[in-house]
UniProtKB/TrEMBL annotation:
One of its GO terms (molecular function) is ferrous iron binding. The keyword Transmembrane helix does not apply. Signal peptide: none annotated. This is Cysteine dioxygenase. It holds the Pfam family CDO_I. Keywords: Dioxygenase, Iron, Metal-binding, Oxidoreductase. Belongs to the cysteine dioxygenase family.
Length: 167
């Protein structure tokens, strides 16, 4: 077995759990006045903006035109949660070091659909629908970097690059 290639995960610097982040994302999503006036849909770059920054977590609004999506990525050791507030998103989850099919049975998330995850979670999120979509994301600790993964020719998922998140 080849060594699994994945970045080191920093020690937790937050008291938030995936469950508390889910509650946080749900709370912001329900407070439509906090995000509806901010909605923008842009191409080719997706629109995103922070809704809240605290000492140990942050909340983002992201929008997705049809066909827009992420690459396969993790959250640099942060835990997180996201919920769909407009349209529909598809989420695929992945296991670094394993052979995987990138689009095998993505999970469909309609408005109100929610996912929460720990610090080693690897996924991609895409708007495969025909309408613009938007989602509210909570992370703890606040995002500092995201690692992007790619499939090798043999289908194994490996680390591709690390990108700093602008503060
Ligand atoms: Fe993500």
């Amino acid at each position: 077995m080849p060594a699994v290639q994945r970045p080191a995960v920093p020690a937790p610097r937050t008291t938030h759990s995936p469950a508390s982040l889910a509650a946080l994302a749900r709370g912001f999503a329900a407070d439509t006045a906090s995000w509806e006036p901010l909605l923008r849909f842009t191409a080719p770059e997706r629109f995103y903006t922070r809704l809240s920054v605290a000492a140990d977590h942050e909340v983002w609004l992201l929008t997705w035109l049809p066909g827009q999506g992420t690459e396969i990525h993790d959250h640099g050791g942060s835990s997180g949660a996201f919920t769909v507030v407009r349209g529909e998103l598809a989420e695929g989850t992945f296991l670094p070091g394993a052979v995987s099919s990138p689009h095998a049975a993505p999970r469909r998330l309609a408005v109100g659909g929610l996912r929460s995850f720990g610090p080693r979670y690897v996924h991609e999120v895409v708007n495969r629908g025909t309408e613009p979509a938007a989602s509210v994301h909570a992370y703890a600790p606040a995002l500092t970097a995201m690692n992007t993964y790619r499939h090798r020719a043999d289908g194994t998922l490996v680390l591709d690059r690390t990108e700093e998140v602008d503060r």
